[in-house]
Amino acid sequence: MATSVKNNFLNPALVSNLQQALILRKKDSVQDQHQNKAKEPTKASSKPVVLVTNAEGIDSPGLTLLVEALLRDALLDVHVCAPQSDRSVCGHSVTTGETLAVCSAQVGDANAYQVSGTPADCVSLALSGALFSWSKPILVISGLNKGATCGYDTLYSGAVAGAREALICGVPSLCISLNWEKNASCESDLKDAVTVCLPLIQAAITDIQKGIFPNNCFLNIGIPTCPLTNKGVKVTRQSVKRSSLCWQAVSTKKNPSAGHYSSNQQSLGIMLAHLGRDASAAAAARRLNSNCKNVEIESVGVAGKIDSQRTIKKYFRMELLTEKGQPNIEDDLDCRALEDGFVTVTPLSLCAKGYVEVQSSVSNWLAIALSGDQ
Q1: If we measure between CA atoms, which residue out of 94, 155, 151, 149 comes closest to residue 119?
Q2: CA distance 112 to 49
Q3: What is the pLDDT of residues 289-303, one digit of tens each?
Q4: Which neighbouring-strand residues pair with 53?
Q5: What string of DSSP letters covers 308-321?
Q6: Quick one: residue 328, left, alpha or beta (phi over 0 = left, psi -120 to 50 = alpha)?
Q7: Where are the domains of the chain?
Q8: Cα 327–333–337 angle (5° rounding)?
Q9: Does pTM surpass 0.85?
Q10: How far apart are CA 174 and CA 111, in angstroms?
Q11: Using an 8 Å Cβ cutoff, are 342 and 232 in contact?
Q12: What CATH topology corresponds to 44-240+331-350?
């Protein structure tokens, strides 16, 4: 039995409204499809993924200038994970037993996060897969950092630690620093340093893709104080140069912040996280030392025997003092070549230099020590 369409009487206004609703729904569906595709750049993009960190913090101009330069030609997929504050001299320390705060940040057009931890924390977290959707980047760059990282100073450097952590995780890495001169260098030198290091970065990415980039070390790159007048690129050896650690006794009366100097370098979130633990520890200490008398002294040393019934409390502050122009240094050492105006490229590995010789020396010593023939 056939049914005529004319028998289905519908209000013309209702039909028009339904048609408009269907059209809008179709448009929304198309827009959703486009948006979903846009949300998956790392899956669809064939661009090399680069992770950038630093030691001076997320707001460092060197970091911003480097990221903007890497994004300029739209050839790289750049991500940033950097400390929220300056951690330049934290070495390769990592944070355990504490919760790190991670917040989104604005660094150019890169996908960026700031972390309440060290550069090593930032790289480890970024490469863990917990923060970014990609499996791992093709290259990790720690930079651009202000201040040379040469010789034994690399052991104190948070910037170098960021690159070293990447190598530990199996990702090629570069640490890039400008030989910043206090009261002489300016932000334009940072821009010039970025210009100088970009060809090295591009060469590294190209050779990583070809499989011919060195995989047993990371490169510590130093940019001279006047980047654009550099004398060329020189492969250098790590020197034994070390900044002098200058300790000074300070008083809370003369400098009220001295007692809290270290904690002030940390974020308010970390300080609050420590509050409960410190309060418990302080209460325990008060019970233990209820009969002891606290005495603050400003002198560097204490003469005579220390009274066991009182607690001596002192405050000290350390500064790094860098010596320049050291004589009798070979031309191919990092600090000498950098001061001479070269762009230095120093390979740094995870294994100690001369391991075979060191092992042999220790074996010979141990054999004699245990034989009793000394």
Answers
A1: 94
A2: 13
A3: 544 444 444 444 444
A4: 142
A5: TTEEEE-EEEEEEE
A6: left
A7: 44-240+331-350, 244-297+308-321
A8: 80
A9: no
A10: 20
A11: yes
A12: Stationary-phase Survival Protein Sure Homolog; Chain: A, (3.40.1210)
